Amino acid sequence: FDHFQHHLSLTQLKSLKLDMEKCREELKKNIYRDFRMFDPKTVISVDEMSETLRNACEVMDALGKEERDEFVEWVASTQLQAYGAIFAPGGEKSGIEYLERRFEWLKNQLLKYNKNYQRIFPRYWNVPGNICKEFCDLTRNHLIEILKQSQQLNNLDMNDLVKALEQCVSFEKELQRLYSQPSFNDDLEKIRISIKKPIG
């Protein structure tokens, strides 16, 4: 419709543009709904449903990069909902001493993703990489808050901090090897810096 932008005062073209926008929104709504409803454990025909969802991905691609990026971000967030609940600051397993458990949780979640979704999403979307990026952002925010609370209570254990930093470096190398993407190094670096600060 960009080609006809200066003609859009014409009622017919305006109406056509509105119809197209409604159609795009309806398609997006249906795609999100189908993915929300998809449960590999309960679906009767996984192959049939996978084919439907693969087709939905093609439609999302056709809708444009902005819609696709927004959708991939949503997928990554839904994959990490449980993580946010389990490891949120203030919880039983949120402390710096449980950092390795966070990494183990992500590894298990990626295994589940590979089993249930790998055949659905196009590889070039790099959905696992986006899940890792979202995980890094969440973890960084959690750690900043946890370390701030620990400093206020004056109960920071330097041995735990050094161990956590070593675990971060090891985990960083593994993620870079498996799911590297252009901005990924920066996200991992942010986690390391958040742990390094209290050490000095």
Describe this structure in words.
With 200 residues, this protein is mainly α. Helices cover 75% and strands 0% of the residues. The chain contains 8 helices and no strands. Helix 7 packs antiparallel against helix 8 (184-199). The radius of gyration is 21 Å and the shape is elongated.
Key terms for this structure?
200 residues, mainly alpha, 8 helices, 75% helix, elongated
Mean pLDDT: 82
The secondary-structure class comes to mainly alpha
Strand content: under 5%
Fraction of residues in helices? over 70%
End-to-end distance: 56 Å
Q: Determine the number of helices (DSSP H or I, runs of at least 4 residues).
A: 8
Shape: elongated
User: What is the string of SSEs from the N terminus onward?
Assistant: HHHHHHHH
- Rg, rounded, reads 21 Å
Q: Total number of β-strand segments?
A: 0
Characterize the main sheet: none
Low-confidence stretches: none
Helix-strand layout with pairing:
Elements (H helix, E strand, L loop, with lengths): L10 H27 L8 H18 L1 H15 L1 H7 L11 H18 L10 H27 L4 H22 L4 H16 L1
